[in-house]
Amino acid sequence: MTALLPHLVRRLGFYLLAAFAALTLNFFVPRMMPGDPATAIFARFQGKLDPAALDAMSTAFGISDAPLYTQYLDYLLNTLHGELGTSLTYFPAPVTAVIGTGLMWTVVLAGTALVIAFAAGSAIGAWAAWRRGGLLDRIAPPLLAFIGAFPYFWLAMVAVWGLGFQLGWFPVRHAYSPEVSPGWSLEFVGSAIQHAFLPAGTMIVASLGGWLLTMRNTMVGVLDTDAIRYAQARGLSPRRILWHYAVRNAMLPSLTSFGMALGFVLSGALLTEIVFGYPGQGYLLLQAVRGQDYPLLQGLFLTISLAVLAANFAVDVLTLVLDPRIRR
Amino acid sequence: MSVLWCHRQARVGLILLALMVLAVFVGPLFVGDPDAFVGRPLDPPSLSHLLGTTGQGQDVFAQTIVGGRTTLGLGLVVGLAVVMVGSVIGGLAGYIGGRVDDVLSFLINVFLVLPGLPLMVVLAAYLPAGPGSMAAVLILTGWAWNARVLRAQVASFRRRDFVEAAIVAGESPMRVLIVEILPNMASLLGGSVLGATTYAVGAQVGLEFLGLGDLGAVTWGTNLYWATNDSALLTGSWWTFVPTGTCVALTGLSLALINFGLDSVTNPALSADVGRGAPGPQPTPVRRST
Amino acid sequence: MKRSLLLLFLTAVGCAPPSHARPEGVVVVVQEQQAAWIRNFNPFNQTGGARWPSAAGVYEPLLIYNPMTGAYTPWLAETWRWVEPARVLEFTVRSGVKWSDGTPFTAHDVAQTFALLKANPALDSGGAWRILLDVTAAGDTVVFTFAAPYAPGLLEVAHTPIVPAHIWRKVAEPTTFANEEPVATGPFTEVRRFEAQVFELGRNPHYWNEAAGDDSVAALRFPAMSSNDQITLALAQGDIDWAGAFVPAVERTFEGRDPAHHDAWFPLVGDTIFLFPNTTHAPLDRPDVRKALSLAIDREKVVQVAMYDYTVPSHPTGLSDGYADWRIDPVPDTDNWVRHDPEEAARLLDQEGFKLDSDGVRRSPDGVPLSLEIATPAGWSDWVRAAQVIARDLRALGIDVTLQGRDFTAWFDRVTKGEFALTLGWAVGGPTPYRMYKGLLASEGVVDVGTAAVTNWHRFGSVTADVALDRFEQTTDPATQRAIARELQQVFLDEAPALPLFPSASWGEANTRWVTGFPSEADPYARLSPNSAPEPLLVMSRLRWRDAKAAP
Prior knowledge:
CATH architecture of chain B: Orthogonal Bundle
Largest interface: A-C, 68 and 62 residues
Helix content of chain C: 25-40%
Oligomer: heterotrimer
């Protein structure tokens, strides 16, 4: 294990550098765009704003006239202290509070959907590879590819209309019923699960095909190896061979993708949130962009970039640990 | 290509794609102006309007056909561009190695960790609407993945005996790349283009649905945007919503099917899929000598 | 075993269909479009930071202007008068009003509110201190002295929300004060519940308005909805009782779902939507060219395609029905360039030297093709559609027209700076035509290209109009005001500074299954739309929960 340390340190170093690059990009990209927060405020008033009030508001919002590099240094220092500033569109709420409204829900919804899609997709893919050429293997990949090829929002809207509106089986908006309040009660948890059915369900159905295919193709290669033939010759039960040996070996590429996808969970599921009115980071990001809300935009990009980098790093570590070939 | 044709699924995919391309590039000559107000709003499909009319009384069939031209056209162009950018940067990184590789890899990785959809939204919101901006946004957010994959492949090829031999024999790096390495990566490049095209079409439609594209243009994405705007589903006007969505799905399906065939060609273990009918379940795949 | 129990539980939970029932006395309102609520009831943070009810349900103003009656309704002030016409205004505050914490409301609170705005310009978004000189309270009267005679200033003063002096004098930083537990005079002041997804305001225990004495409506509930689509769906399902959203095909999507209870009413008393030409940009600097463009536009088609026939083509003067007794009616044909007459348009352009060549392209005398770009905010679908129809109509004249869509703030930035050729836009409204014509014609609103202009994006100034506007500000006599308004309309008709398209509709939807009392076309006591604070207060005082025993 100690032999891995210099390699790990090098990877960590790279990720810290990438984090710094991401922070810098976070700062400059919004400022390179036309318009500015003051104009955005002006716009929201549809021109009825008194110019003196606008100036005063800009000062209150902290929109500074200082040279760019001064602002940049302030920004870096503040970020390191965890001070993400005050949101402009949700003035005067701090950015951390605004992000907090959606973070939990994003993690739970997108995270759960990802885990279920990955587990189910990989399991079905493994089985399809095992029963090569069988019914499942011939039908599942093209069918799921077709379903996954529909634009996600299209599937979501049809689900909302069909299952939610016409049939009334599922709620069509929000994370929980307005009749219950958040808390650790059975009613709340039940309501939250009920409201997550359609959003998570559509996300899972749309992404199942991808996981299935990755697993199936890798599995087919693994099943073709001598190791497996040897195990079969030894008389080990097919079940044991499939789950204990084949899947474990075939997991690696899927796991890498899974790790990366996990990192992106924090960027929220914008289209899901829009169609289902589900709270989350994605829509906050869209609003921040539209409202030229630099602090909120920076805060959101920061959480997303850090999550992605952390997930990447975790995947790298996991790969190093799991794959003996790389250690050489 | 002939191997692809033998693969049943790939064959279906190729035919489907060819039909769609034909429909959207030749079709517009036969349908009227999609922007013209030709009928009563929200009319169901009938003989005069095969797919009915939109909320403004425009012909849905014309909009679907003409819309495909921009969407598919831009999708294919962007797909190719993404792979080209990716292969140049990835290829250089993988081939030259050393410092150049470090710098380019870093660049690739930074772009990879930037969250795609948010970045797309930010860019699309500020650039003036139009196909050029859309292409720029899609290429900028999509090239890194291909670059990484191609870099790894070129790097592994670089160390192979026949390449080393060519270098020792005095072949120029350009010639080595183009003559020795690239042909071996043909199927990987092909698969990448298919994947990148799928991504380009899907991302376009997604951005336009959010209202971030050129709303004045007729594309599959804007068709869906306007249909949603007119509360297509709530008014029961499924014909404004279903055909375009299905076309996008069929495009994705055809590309996926061709990709299945391409996988079989590259992965010898999967090559048993080629030309198969419906054999019984077997625990061990039959290896075909390649 | 455990796994199957879990599955069973999940299925059971999932299987209970969602209910659409409503707890007693809770009225569901949707006005703001937000994904998540932040707790802020500071009525002066109207940039989207404060919740909508802050200025329409929690805090109240002195008077409320009602466009349906064309008069001011006394609210926290019982009477008002001009002590010195257009210069000194005196209000007598209502007696017997209490703040929601029981403290009596006095004229001192009014004076202190304005002092607060003076000390914190960032809160003075209405620009009250731009026109005021002094505000003093004595007994139960408040006297406002204007810096210069300004009769229209009544609106700014009348509509300012009044806050309690005894609470706000203790606030260190009023600009960033979120006012999470509001103390106010309005009908709904108690925050019963506040979550990111939904918040509820309960009744004010000390509410003064006996006409609204029926406590049957216990609370207003505000679910967070971020898009028009969600609101439309919720309206269709009957989950919202009161909204002000643009609903496409409203007869089918909303009213048709429950004709007995779903009511949509969009009176045309809002601000007019214009096509603004940049008058610094040749050849749009010539009135006849502008009139020609206007004559080419088929407004009926615009209204049908872009606005689902919810509105009608604009009156030639640009004034909507809300100003019916101010308008020159009828406008003689020679003055009317707000009609569809492509032949006349072509004739005017020919006359101005822009003739059609053999290819059907209209060129200037130098041979340069006449080419114009229409700027629109990319996400405003109704405006995009309107622009598309206008573009087609102008192209039929031989003009090369392109559409340029940009994200809202980018678009707004450019148009306020005068970096455009043609753009859609809104005119400023108000109790009288004064504000609209000031925005369209006043020279003081004209700024250089490159500097952001508050109203006059098209950069047109008329000296005749300046004189008339000045006289309007000095007089409080209705007859004189109407005469001056006709002069302004004449200048507008002569000069064509901007092209009126259609009056915007005041969007309002109501569901009377659980609650009654909403205004409607049959009972237009106020606007149904919750979009113009403080008018919703007029509606809130009339809402009654339906008798549970009576079958809905």
